[in-house]
Amino acid sequence: MAGLKWIGATLGWTLGGPIGAIIGLALGSLGDAMAGKGNLLGDGNPNTQQRRQPNYRTKPNYRTQQQRRAQTTSGDFEVSLLILASVIIKADGVQDQRELDFVRSKFVELYGKDRANKAFKLFKSISNQNVSTRDVCAQIQQMMDHASRLQLLHFLFGIAKADGMVTDDEEDQVQRISNYLGISSRDYSSIKAMFYNSSDNAYKILEIDKTATTDQIKKAYRKMAKKYHPDRVEHLGEEHRKGAEEKFKQVQKAYEFLQDERRF
């Protein structure tokens, strides 16, 4: 795993399946493939690799799914993020420098300059591949917990908005990814509202209608504060816990806005 030593946590489920294949090709294109490449993607035999990996288009039983999701690490999240970010960057057919700068700056913020530089090299190599979004998301949906998938979605909207606007193609791609990840339409709308300016954003963030009563608003706030609390992703490491604080603050701001508007 020498080519990925810069990832702070041990990689788990992303070493196999479609994500493992993408990372392996990216490392190879960087001249970073190692003699122990089989340790990264299996034993080097595609047929054996296929037998060992679960079918990511077939939903496993609940017990198995929960057991697998418990294995998600910071490294798993990071490589998943790199791949999906490359999909969004290419959604409108143009790799805008502002979007690339956003990805780089976000990785510097999360991981520090040295690790971010290495991650960005891998990201650029991944961007040159034709990624099967459905297959990648199927693997993530089965192996990653809900709170971490919401964090991925929040990051992807940030990339799309980095150049000042979200194009229709970018929004369609983010929504498609959200669907593939098994994220509900209400959760999708809540996170989307954090990146748009409209009079009903506060209601959308809290996943309620404008007709909601004061008690319903308070109840919704408690529910959303729990759902987006940074502690929900603490298993991914302190860097991702801090990254989740942005969503949590948006929930707080939405509630405070409605407190002022409704005067309660």
From TrEMBL:
Task: Note the SMART domains from the entry.
Answer: DnaJ
Region Disordered, as annotated, extends over: 38-71
**What Pfam families would the database entry show?**
DnaJ, TerB
In terms of superkingdom, the source organism counts as Bacteria
Keyword field: Membrane, Transmembrane, Transmembrane helix
- Has the keyword Transmembrane helix been applied to this entry? yes
Cite the record's Polar residues compositional bias ranges.
45-62
The chain positions of domain J read 201-263
Quote the PANTHER family the UniProt record gives: CO-CHAPERONE PROTEIN DJLA (PTHR24074)
The name this protein goes by in its record: DnaJ like chaperone protein
Organism listed in the record:
Olleya namhaensis
